[in-house]
Amino acid sequence: MDGRIDSTDVEGDPQFPRRFRHLYDRLRAATGFGAACLKSLVISESNANGPFVGVPHDTELARSNFARRKTLITAFRDELLGRRVFQLLLRPLEDEAVIAERNDALQDLLEQAVKTVLYTEGGIYGNSVITRLPELPVFDYEDDRMTSHYYHFINDRRIRGFAPAQGGCSLIVARPGLAYADMQSFGQFAKRSPYQMFPAEVVGEIIPEKTCTKSKAMSRKTKSSKTTKSRNKKAKTDSKPDSKSVVSETPSESQVSNAPDADNDSKEKREEKQKIPTLEHLTPRLRKTFWRD
User: Fold this and answer.
1) For 140-192, how does the pLDDT look when each residue is reduced to its tens digit (9 = 90+)?
2) Composition bias, kind Polar residues: at what positions (predicted)?
3) Model confidence at 122: pLDDT above 80
4) Which residues face 234 on adjacent strands?
5) 97's torsion region: left (phi>0), alpha (psi -120 to 50) or beta?
6) E strands of the chain, at which residues?
7) Rounded to whole angstroms, how far apart are CA atoms 26 and 161?
């Protein structure tokens, strides 16, 4: 707001917003609900929009503040583009059409930010409380001021490796929380707690995944027990003589009778092996030269 005294005052009072803020703080100390109503009424009527987008309401106050807000946003845009940080981040351009397009995009971004501030400060209830990362250092599932970001893929279960850890560090607040205080006035004896309009979406430290140390240890134990059992069995078999091995050392009559048949079988196998051609006979002979004789 310009803070003009009358219609002839062109420059206005640059200290008017600070004076109005001090008046608001004094009213809030006396009655929070009344101060919130005054603040909401002044901000909403001073920045009222018409039925079309980008067109102010048909009042002298809304038109003058709309023009003033547009010039202030343009000046702030030029100030940002002129800073060295933006000069290092932005790529130098030579085409004037591309430069104008980039400036318009930054202008739209700043206008959207102004609309958000006007909504939070001059909405239905002016006493808004915004929770950011300093107010939310640790993630808590029971805290109504925060909720997990969709990056965590949270459902009814808290999956390890995806869900934020209870009491873990809050890394990023993707969307700050918004709460309204002093919504209704019950006098000096009763106060209503702030109403949480939007909880903050927090990206927090995830629950670490379980390590498979127990399963590995169990598998090692079972392997060691199996090896010890097999060793014990081998030791027992070596210590006790086998009756079958002793009996097999003394040939029986059936073995003696079948001995010539075994010799005949061995001879037949030898003859069959001799009949099978070797690899040298199977492979054809190569010519000495590539050309035919």
Assistant:
1) 998 888 988 888 877 667 778 788 889 899 888 888 888 877 665 555 555 66
2) 245-258
3) no
4) none
5) alpha
6) 128-131, 146-148, 170-175, 177-180, 195-198, 200-204
7) 50
